[in-house]
Structure formats: C-alpha cells, structure tokens
Design a protein that fits this description.
Elements (H helix, E strand, L loop, with lengths): L1 E3 H8 L3 H13 L4 E2 L14 E3 L2 H13 L1 H4 L1 H23 L14 H21 L6 H16 L2 H17 L3 H17 L3 H18 L2 H17 L3 H18 L2 H17 L3 H18 L2 H17 L3 H18 L2 H17 L3 H18 L2 H17 L3 H17 L3 H17 L3 H18 L2 H17 L3 H17 L3 H19 L1
C-alpha cells in the first residue's frame, strides 16, 4: 500500500510542497520510499506516491497509537477521510455518464478521475473500513465508489462495504442513507449473480421508499427490482414491476428512467422469443441515449439490440450494433463491456458463417478477458471459439478451448453453460474416435444436468454416453446409459428421441450377445 503526496499533506495539515519535503526527509532516513522521482522544489508530480516497508509501518502504527493523545492522530485521520470522501465523490461525478451535469474541478476529465480511483482503490477501501461510524466516510465512501466498483467489477469490495454501510445506518436509525446503502448492496448482488438476494434487498428498499412517499426513488427501485427478477427469469413479475416503474417515471417526467426501463424490457423479450418486439424497445432506448449524449448507456443498450437483431435473423444489423458497442466501450474505458461486446460480435459472425472474422473477435474477447480477470467472458469466448472450430471440422484443435471453457464455467458457478460446453466437448472427442474420453465427459455432463434438474438435457447426455460406449464394445455400460436415456425421454415426452434410443439399445443388446 502507498500514499500520494496530496494525501500525506492532509495528514500533515500542510501544503503539498511542505509535505514533500517532510517525506523526502523520511526517505533519506530510509523510512519511506518514493515511487515517482522529482525535484524537491518542484510541484508534486501526478502519480507521485510514497510507500513504507511493512515492518516500519507496524512500528510507526504502534508509536502513533501510543502518542495519539497529544500528536493529533484522530484529527489527522479525520482530515484524510474528508479528503478521500470529497475527492471520491468528485471522481464519481466525472464517472457518471449523463451529459449536462456540473463537473467539479478536482479533475480535468473522466480519464483523470478514473486514474485517481484506480491508484487509490486499496486506500479508499481501507479508509471505508477504518472510518469510525460517526464519520461520513463510513457510509459515504461506498456510495461514491459504486460506479467505479461496477465499472471495474470489484464486486467483493462493493458487497463488503455496502453490507457494513447498511449496518451502520441501521444502528444510527438513518433511514435515508440506509435506503441508499441498500440500493448499492442490491446492485452489487446483481453484479455478483446473487439475484434472489438482490430481489429481497430491493423489496426492502421499496418499503423504505413508500414510507417517504418519494415516487421518483420508488420508480428507480422498481426498475432495479425488475432487472433482478428478469435475471431470475421471473418474467411475468419483472414485466409487471417494470410497467409500474415506467408509469411512475411518466408521472414525474423522467424520460431517462423510462429509457432504462426499455433497456431492461428488451432482453426480457429476447428471452421470451419475441426478438422483433425487443428490437423495437431497444431501438427506442438507443435513440434516446444518443439524443442526450450518454455514450456508455448507448453502448450497453447496443449490446442487447445486437442480440435482438441476431435473434430476429437480421444478422448484418446485429453485427453493426455489436461493432458500434465495441467502439463505444473502448472509448469509455469499460474493458469488461468491450470484452462482452467482442464475444457477442463473434457469436453473430459465427451464425453468418464468417468464421475468419468471428475467430478474430472471440479470440480478442478471450485475450482481453484473461488480461482483466474476467473469467465469465473468457469462458464464453473460448466456448464460441470451440464451436467455430467444430464448424470447420477442426476437431483436434477444438478440444483445448472447450476443455478450458468448461473448467472456467464451473469455477464461476455457471453450471448451465458448463453442461452445454461439456456436451460439445463430448461430441468433439467422439468425432476423433476418442470414445472412452467422450463417455467420461458425457457422464460429467449428465451429472451436471441432474444437479440442475434438466431431465431432458440429462437424457441427451446419457444417450451420447451410450453411443460412445458402444463404439468401444463396453456394451453393459452402454445398455445402462441408453436405458436411462430412454426413460428420461419418456418422462419428458420426447417420443422421437425415445424411439431412436430404443433402436440403439437393441443394437447394444445384440452386440453384447455377440
């Protein structure tokens, strides 16, 4: 951990030049180290930071506590917390994408604000944890850091600090800030994929909103609740909640909130198979974001519009939407969004059988995702690359990306995608004549489907296992797998597949006799 000259100046209660001279003296005594060089008489350079060896830090902290009563330790900490809070709030304002908002002059632009947040992240988290409950930073820092945490996917910090802030607000019976802290916690839970908990949190926020009669905040909360319900695939409740939100936004004249509702209704319609209706919602939302100049909201909506257009078989338009989204995410510095958009672009190009361009897109997505530690997107991109190689009948080359994708899906808890990827991997191995390995992979697939309650998917997996086992004359095991598959297809009403499996079962029985 290190500290900037500006932050150290707040501790010293001196200007940056004076603080630098004090720090330079400590550096000459080898008590601190300077990370960025500059003349002592020069203005402190951007990015100039100072660090301390862990043992020296421990000793300094011990001395500081011993002499806290008369060396102004508490006042120094309060000044530092004030600095971190006000500067984080200023940085957050620069990160907000709504044009027309007045911008504080702490930073020249959004890029500088983001650079400061990235440099100070560990200090800001530590400050939020260490702040006494009575100091505004105890709850205010996490509220100011929500946009940054979301952008850079610092989900654990977001969850932990939001949970602590909720507790502090409840202890102080501060209902207003409790609502804000709960709202941040709910959004963090959505980002973490913990949608059921997010629904519970936003339901609690809704109760707080209705206590105060604030219809606008209620509309925002209903929108968040609708999004969480949509992720749970509880589409009926999600649509009802979002409809209520849209009505409230209309009453207060908030067209921005209405556009956000459209941006959530669009993906719901995609899931329901109504891609054309989704295109209508999302096209309207994109037009609004362009009109007001919110380029990040436009990029997020373009991703979903691209998916809707591809679902409506309008592939060229879908590719353009994804391509535009990639450019906007890159411009905005949203690397996670860029990775997702690249992967979606590749998937659309695969459907168009433009396999060369598709490979460039999905491999770019995989490389970027690996670089930033975005395992979910890396897995999706590698799975798409494996599927692409299958279409090219490059079965041997497809094994590695599909194996890696399945492992990453499991690590990230995405068992549905892990199961579908294992299905592709099993087919790939069988095409190469590696039937024993294909049977092992198929058995893993069947086990995952069983955990998920996907009886039909489990039947397909056992069918594939049985067919592979027949190829290596492991007929007893094949008969057991095929019998299980037949029973599952019968249970799920798939008579066609049941009949096919029974034919294979008869052949396996004859093979065992021979």
């Amino acid at each position: 951990m290190d500290v900037s000259t500006t932050s150290a100046a707040k501790l010293f209660d001196r200007g940056p030049m004076h603080a630098r001279r004090l720090l330079a003296g400590l550096a000459r005594a080898h008590l601190v180290e300077q990370r960025a060089q500059g003349g002592i008489d020069q203005e402190p350079a951007d990015g100039e930071r100072w660090s301390m060896h862990d043992l020296v830090r421990l000793f300094a902290n011990e001395l500081g506590r011993e002499h806290a009563a008369y060396d102004g330790r508490d006042a120094a900490v309060a000044r530092l917390l004030d600095h971190y809070l006000t500067t984080a709030q200023a940085a957050d304002t620069h990160l907000q994408t709504t044009p027309g908002w007045p911008l504080p002059d702490d930073f020249t632009d959004r890029g500088q604000a983001l650079e400061w947040l990235e440099a100070e992240q560990s200090n800001l988290v530590a400050a939020a944890k260490a702040a006494p409950a009575h100091h505004a930073a105890a709850t205010g820092l996490v509220l100011a850091l929500g946009t940054f945490f979301d952008l850079r996917r610092h989900v654990n910090d977001w969850l932990n600090l939001s949970t602590a802030a909720v507790g502090i607000c409840r202890e102080a019976e501060d209902r207003h800030n409790e609502r804000a802290a709960l709202d941040g916690l709910g959004r963090a839970l959505i980002r973490a994929g913990r949608f059921k908990e997010a629904v519970d949190v936003f339901t609690a926020v809704l109760d707080l909103c209705r206590e105060t009669g604030d219809g606008h905040v209620e509309a925002i909360t209903l929108t968040n609740l609708g999004q969480a319900l949509a992720f749970l695939e509880n589409f009926v409740d999600a649509v009802n909640v979002l409809t209520d939100a849209a009505a409230l936004f209309g009453e207060v004249g908030d067209s921005l909130g209405g556009a956000r509702v459209l941006g959530i209704l669009g993906p719901i319609q995609i899931k329901l198979g109504a891609s054309n209706q989704a295109v209508g919602y999302l096209t309207e939302a994109v037009a609004y974001w362009r009109k007001i100049g919110d380029r990040h909201a436009e990029s997020v909506t373009l991703v979903n519009l691209g998916l809707a257009l591809v679902g409506a078989q309008r592939f060229r338009e879908g590719v353009k939407a994804h391509t535009d989204a990639v450019a906007l995410f890159r411009e905005h510095g949203d690397r996670h969004g860029e990775a997702d958009a690249l992967n979606n672009l590749g998937a659309a190009l695969i459907q168009m059988r433009k396999l060369g361009e598709a490979a460039d897109a999905v491999l770019s997505a995989a490389r970027l995702s690996k670089k930033i530690g975005y395992a979910q997107c890396e897995a999706k991109a590698l799975a798409n690359f494996g599927q692409l190689l299958l279409l090219k009948r490059s079965f041997n080359k497809a094994v590695t990306p599909l194996t890696t994708a399945a492992s990453l899906f499991r690590e990230t808890g995405d068992r549905h995608s892990a199961a579908s990827t294992l299905d592709l991997l099993g087919q790939t191995l069988a095409e190469q004549g590696r039937f024993d390995e294909a049977a092992d992979v198929g058995t893993q697939d069947a086990s995952l489907c069983r955990e998920l309650g996907d009886r039909h998917g489990e039947g397909i997996a056992w069918k594939n296992v049985g067919l592979s086992l027949c190829q290596v004359h492991r007929f007893d095991e094949a008969i057991e797998a095929l019998s299980t598959a037949a029973a599952l297809f019968r249970e799920t009403g798939d008579r066609r597949r049941e009949a096919e499996v029974r034919v294979q079962l008869a052949r396996a029985t004859r093979g065992r006799r021979n």
